[in-house]
Write a structure and sequence with these properties.
This protein has 138 residues and is α+β, with helices and mostly antiparallel strands. The chain has five helices and seven strands, in the order ααβαββαββββα. It has a three-stranded antiparallel sheet. Helix 1 packs across helix 2. The structure holds zinc ion (ZN).
Length: 138
Amino acid sequence: MIKNALDIGKAVARLNALVEMDPDGMKSVCEARTPVNPEMAEHKDLPVLVAKQGEQTFYLMGPLGLVNYLFGMDQDAGMGAIAGIFEVACGKCGLLGNEGQVVGDVCGACGGEIELGDLIEFTITPQGREAIARDEQV
Ligand SMILES: [Zn+2]
């Protein structure tokens, strides 16, 4: 079925149906990054990761960036309407991270590095909820 209009809540529900179907596959899809040109990185509504390695600069975009390009970005918050919720876990001892811990943090139990865990679900960000409350897109 082709849709002329899709609101944020329905988009999240459709994405979560895919997470339920194949959580590992959807995690891989979300982690994919594709090189784009600098002009794409300068676009204000397009979340593009800028990474430097020595003298070289890389511009990388992921699929969730494309989704949030469609629904819009809150420039001040640097956040789109939809976010992926991932577990974080210690790469050394496997202990699940606490709320607020992010990738690269140090594990309190063993000193290992906290890494990205399973994709739990997609969710509407606070910026997305504000847009819904205003009955408009971010
Ligand atoms: Zn650990």
